[in-house]
Write a structure and sequence with these properties.
Blueprint: E1 2-4, E2 27-31, H1 35-47, E3 51-56, H2 59-68, E4 75-79, H3 87-97, E5 102-107, H4 112-121, E6 125-128, H5 133-154
Parallel strand pairs: 1-6, 2-3, 2-4, 4-5, 5-6
Helix pairs in contact: 2-3, 3-4
Length: about 160
């Protein structure tokens, strides 16, 4: 589990000499019940080069969008606390239905149990919402690099 917050330093494993994945083909879905946060996050991710393909206000809506999608998103950014279907249940369902999708749990909660609980349910990483945007970007790059690596092994 990678748990990242303002007080946690992380070695992202990336440096200026290592090639970074081209994130322009990385598709992302976001589930968060706060519209303004979804919009701001979509804007940030688009600026960083990601393709945000789904924006949902809860886990149930996210799953419905994914079921109808022509192509699965590579990464789902999932809020922990949402109405209708929370992040715990959403992470569990995502991994059950589409195990190849990477799940980034995203919350303001600083309690360790929140991150550990999300990882137990299927999240690949837990990131606090107050993390610096470059930490978010580095975390997404790590997840996407792992997706590309898995695809290369399968081919």
């Amino acid at each position: 589990m990678i748990s990242i917050g303002m007080e946690t330093a992380v070695n992202t494993g990336t440096s200026n000499t290592k090639p970074k994945p081209d994130v322009s083909s990385c598709t992302i879905a976001i589930a968060d019940d706060h519209f303004e946060l979804r919009e701001a996050l979509t804007g940030l991710l688009t600026t960083l080069g990601y393709d945000v393909v789904i924006s949902a206000e809860n886990g149930k809506e996210l799953l419905e969008h994914i079921e109808k999608a022509e192509q699965l998103p590579d990464i789902c950014i999932v809020d922990v606390v949402m109405p209708v279907m929370d992040g715990y249940e959403t992470a569990k369902e995502l991994k059950k239905r589409w195990p190849a999708i990477k799940v980034l749990a995203f919350s303001f909660r600083k309690e360790k149990w929140a991150g550990k609980g999300m990882v137990r349910k299927g999240a690949d990483v837990y990131l606090q919402k107050d993390a610096h945007p470059q930490i978010l970007h580095a975390t997404l790059q790590i997840l996407y690099k792992s997706i590309l690596s898995n695809r290369a092994e399968i081919s």
